[in-house]
Amino acid sequence: MYLIWELIIGALAGWLAGNITRGRGFGLLGDIVVGVIGAWLGGFILHLIGLYSIGLIGSLVTALIGAVILLTLIRVIKNA
C-alpha cells in the first residue's frame, strides 16, 4: 500500500512541479519518475537543513520542493 501512495504522491508532485516551472510535463510516467526522485531529493535537502515532513501533506510538499528543484536543474542542463 505504501508503494501505491508513493506513486500517487510522486505523480501529483511531478505534475504540479511541471505546472509551477511552466513546462508541459513529461507525461504520466515521466511525472511519476520526476515526482519520486523529487521526493527523495526534497527529503534529502530538507533533512540537511533540519526539517522533516510528517503526513500526506508534508510528503507532498517535500516531493514538490524536490521535483521543482529537479525540473529546474534538468532545464538548466538542457539549455546549456
Explain how this protein is built.
The chain is globular, with a radius of gyration of 12 Å. Helix 1 crosses helix 2, helix 1 packs across helix 3 and helix 2 crosses helix 3. It is 82% helix and 0% strand. The chain has three helices and no strands. The chain has 80 residues and is mainly α.
In short:
The protein is mainly α and 80 residues long. The chain has helices at 2-20, 27-48, 55-79. It has one domain (7-79).
Search tags:
80 residues; mainly alpha; globular
What are the SSEs and their pairings?
Layout: H1 2-20, H2 27-48, H3 55-79
Helix pairs in contact: 1-2, 1-3, 2-3
Distance between the termini: 40 Å
Given the C-alpha coordinates, what overall shape results? globular
Continuous helix count? 3
Fraction of residues in β-strands: under 5%
Oligomeric state of the chains in view? single chain
